[in-house]
Design goal:
Shape: elongated
Order of helices and strands: EHEEEHEEEHEHHHHH
Strand order of the largest sheet: 3-2-1-4-5-6-7-8
CATH topology of the largest domain: Rossmann fold
Number of strands: 8
CATH class of the largest domain: Alpha Beta
CATH architecture of the largest domain: 3-Layer(aba) Sandwich
Largest sheet: 8 strands, mixed
Length: 252
Amino acid sequence: MIKVSILGSGNVATHLYRAFAESNEVQLVQIYGRNPKKLIPFGDDVSTCSRLEDLKEADVFLLAIKDDAIEEFIQKIKSSNAIIAHTSGSIPLSQSAQKNGVFYPLQTFSKDTPVDFKSIPLCLEASDKEIYSVLEKLALAISPKVFSISSPQRKSLHLSAVFVCNFVNHLYHIGEDLCAKNEVPFEILHALITETARKASLHSPKTVQTGPALRNDQQSIAKHLELLTNENYTEIYKLLTQSIQATYGTKL
């Protein structure tokens, strides 16, 4: 059984805690968080602490904290035996600890939205094979989708994730806002959202592109631009239209 402590109390930390708590192959030793109030939701099932000097020994310390705090944080951890692995998609493998690793779950997390870890890819990296083996065992305890991903690959993967998740979600927000301003239920678009994601998962997204930009339907494009009163929305619409047309060579 692998002994794990999670350092952090945010979205990623919360979901990792829930996943490990359900595994018979993982022993949760401790949850660390600077703010004691944020540790309350973890309940009495696991030890918690808000001071690094109170950390108990574990096989793996998983750092689920802000990217810009990772390197400095690692240097403060006093342990010569534990593997110290961060969960960031954009920060490279640290060189500040004797046993370094990365344990990156590629998913969007919100505390109140349940996720199935069995469907989540876990991207691993380690400073040597022995450490990788431990992280791999830990990962397989909660998901069958485990990948060896280098720091440069992970940085590129994180960028891709921003496009397909964060930027797309912002476009969902724009669509919802436009619906609300015209008293149209956003749920009418739910089936379209689901089908678009399904097709992008089954095929290369480039082969299933549709819409007025692809068809170079200038009449529809002009009407859409007339409807947009938010300057930011207008710029986004124009930029995406231009990008689609440049990709497919459809602009006349």
